[in-house]
Amino acid sequence: xxxxxxxxxxxxxxxxLVGSLVLLLLRHFLPLRSTPAYVLVPIFLAxxxxxxxxxxxxxxxxxxxxxxxxxxxxxxxxxxAVLVAWRITYWLTFGLTWFILPLLGEYIDSGYRTPxxxxxxSLRSNGRYQxxxxxxxAGGLVYVFVQNGFRGTSVKAMVVA
Length: 161
Known about the structure:
The protein is mainly α. It contains six helices and no strands.
């Protein structure tokens, strides 16, 4: 049975390099010492996670090859490690995109002075946006049902689109 120690080391060093480059990029545009951590960490993750997908995809493809020859596989990781990496990347990116970054943006842009008022304003503003998106999606669903009838494939096609 082949071990993935070399691939593990390469993946770890690659992720450390990507993280370092993201920090250098943030340092160029933000004063790291005076920027609050509640801003810096989500922004770091918002840049780091999509860039790490560039590393994760080839590793996933190489890991799914059905060969036992390490030389032809390249950089590969065990199935469970790849699965966990994809799940972490997907769900963190999803949460950042739909919840954390919009709330953070409205929180920072709000004109209120107290954190509680800023947070309430941010929740209210993002709730309004999410409600508009939900109403538009419901309208699209009604349109698909009227055009194609009530079939599961119609709903699946709309969700995929």
